[in-house]
Specification:
This protein is an all-alpha fold. The protein has 15 helices and 2 strands. Strands 1-2 form a two-stranded antiparallel ribbon.
């Protein structure tokens, strides 16, 4: 079903694009910024050349052909082709996402398990207060508080991706770019000073994303753990005299992971699509900030290209989550 879903999503995106004029849609086919700087006669010829006055299905065929060939048009916001802009900004977003998501997921599983096991006792109450605060904080409020405390007051975690001296170092000829992620590339180049500077800039947005997403996943894990501990097979295992730790962690927690896996998959897909608010608050040059700037500048090719990227990420991660279900619970079988 994955190709069918992607086909439907591409039709929806293209239908939104069809609300634009032929001249505006012509930018989606532009390989360079000079493409649309010709006169009206030149623009009319290019509109005819690309069939932008053709029927819907003909135009869709041309557009999807460009998408499949990697030509997403020219982005005035990034001053480069959309595909190149997405590829260059993706490592920055992935660096931020995985440093936030992996610790957040593991901590959510641990806290949710502890809260479920010790329901209505002090460990549960502490976890619930912690998660309610995180759930109640809007991302932009928590992010601004992080800047106020750790940048304005303490000057520990500055915004941006790197300091000026570190940015000059990573763009110098002697610095080899392997992945585009500053933390990884600095280690591969053997430069610990850039690595430390990169971590300082990552700390505030990582803490913000981890806490906000951790709160939601912990609540789900706690609820799932409580429901699992009430199941008959758990009571039976306890009645047989199995050790409490084995019953709670090996049997109950494994089945309780199914709901949080779904939530975590959606959280990861959303974060990989660009954490717009977080990247904007901390001036972090990633996909989210690029998407926000493109939308505010009415950069149609960039917005459409970003939309297709996000659709692919969302569908693929949903598929991965479905494939993980049988590994977590052998009773779940694909048919």
């Amino acid at each position: 079903m994955l190709p069918v879903v992607l086909f439907a999503l591409s039709l929806m995106l293209f239908a939104l694009q069809m609300s634009l004029s032929p001249t505006q849609r012509l930018a989606a086919y532009a390989p360079s910024p000079d493409f649309l700087k010709g006169g009206q006669d030149s623009i009319r010829r290019m509109i005819e050349q690309y069939g932008l006055n053709d029927p819907f299905y003909v135009q869709y065929g041309h557009w999807i052909g460009n998408i499949l060939s990697g030509n997403l048009g020219w982005s005035e916001t990034a001053r480069q082709p959309v595909a190149h802009a997405l590829a260059s900004l993706l490592p920055a977003t992935m660096e931020l996402v995985f440093l936030s998501f992996i610790p957040g997921f593991l901590l959510a599983v641990y806290l949710g398990t502890r809260a479920g096991i010790h329901a209505n006792r002090w460990p549960d109450h502490v976890v619930r207060i912690f998660t309610i605060l995180g759930w109640s904080f809007p991302v932009y409020v928590f992010g601004l508080l992080m800047l106020l405390v750790f940048y304005s007051a303490l000057d520990w975690f500055p915004p941006g991706r790197l300091s000026q001296w570190a940015q000059a170092a990573v763009t110098s000829p002697g610095f080899i770019r392997y992945t585009g992620a500053n933390t990884i590339d600095s280690l591969l180049n053997g430069d610990l000073s850039i690595f430390v500077d990169s971590l300082r800039h990552l700390a505030a947005p990582v803490i913000t994303l981890t806490y906000v997403n951790l709160a939601n996943m912990t609540r789900v894990m706690r609820t799932s753990m409580l429901e699992t501990l009430r199941q008959d097979y758990v009571r039976t295992a306890r009645a047989k005299g199995m050790p409490k730790r084995v019953v709670e962690l090996r049997h109950a927690r494994r089945n309780a992971l199914l709901p949080i896996t779904t939530i975590a998959g959606m959280e990861l897909a959303t974060m990989m699509g660009g954490v717009v608010i977080t990247e904007t608050i901390f001036d972090y040059a990633g996909l989210g900030q690029f998407a926000a700037k493109s939308a505010s500048n009415l950069d149609f090719p960039a917005v459409l290209g970003f939309g297709m990227y996000f659709a692919v990420v969302l569908v693929v991660l949903n598929l991965i989550v479905d494939m993980l279900y049988p590994l977590l619970d052998p009773r779940v079988k694909t048919r």
